[in-house]
Amino acid sequence: MIRIAVQAKGRLNEESLALLAEAGISIEESKRKLLARAGDFPIEVLYLRDDDIPQAVSMGVADIGIVGLNEVEEKQFDVEIVHRLGFGNCRLSLAVPKAEEYTSPAWFNGKRVATSYPRILTRYFEQNGITAEIHEIAGSVEIAPSVGMADAIFDIVSSGGTLVTNGLREVEKVLFSEAVLIANKQLTEEKRQVVSQLMFRFESVERSRGMKYMLMNLPCDRVDDAVKILPGMKSPTILPLAQEGWCSLHVVIKENELWDKIEALKAIGAEDILVLALEKMIL
Ligand code: PRT
Ligand code: ZN
User: Fold this and answer.
1) Separation of 133 CA from ligand 1 center, angstroms?
2) Which domains does the chain have, with CATH numbers?
3) Which H/E stretch holds residue 266?
4) Quick check: 61 pLDDT over 70?
């Protein structure tokens, strides 16, 4: 049995639980207390504030956790980053009032910068030889310049909309973040095995994202042409049809390449093209 910490509510909560569900680990809505046991896998889910997840994992209160890389880097607890999960993407950036003339990070010398991420910012300033005043504030960092509390900010940016609304301009992207799976460094062998079982499921889910299963009929003498059009990862499956001279071709294809490939396949005589959702890819 392992315990995984996920964000109780907030931006990462839904996708963390969705990922677990896709991996076959479901937690009934009604059972969402602080700690919930999944029915079908040796795991229990501990719901925490995201800020507390790195510490909980480093102390072994939870064995693993799903949290933003930004929190892991800021808190500096000793945990292992097992896997990047590909959601919750954002960046930690420096932003200045839009009217400022900004040419290089040297602009920050002697300035006051408001942030909830003082450690990451301190490290960045040190690496760039900048001496600035860092003001740690817990929330609403983006309003600090307009109320005179700071000259600039260092905060999470995703679409950039919040910066624009507050008359700010992103000038340095310091850290690219996404949700990551972290683990305690002293897991028992038994727990490690459960974690690798979980990773196997996560990877199968990830592989199938953005992929479709496509099948079509075409004259057997065009199969070679079709293989040239289709992605090279693995050769497609080809089955003979009852109708003489015709074959059925099955292939896994990237969704964003789908329409181009379909046009090309039709041009060489493919018919009855079916595109199906691909749920899992187990290799
Ligand atoms: O209650 P708890 O402490 O658990 O949650 P929280 O309020 O501290 O965190 P939450 O739920 O806001 O974010 C959790 C994690 O989501 C963060 O640690 C990041 O890893 C990730 N993430 C991804 C984001 C964003 N995108 C994001 N856009 N976290 C915050 N934001 C904020 C940003 O600060 C800005 O103020 O959203 C605002 C809008 O961003 P724009 O650029 O799209 O306008
Ligand atoms: Zn938080």
Assistant:
1) 24
2) 2-86+178-207 (3.40.190.10), 90-177 (3.40.190.10), 211-277 (3.30.70.120)
3) helix 258-267
4) yes
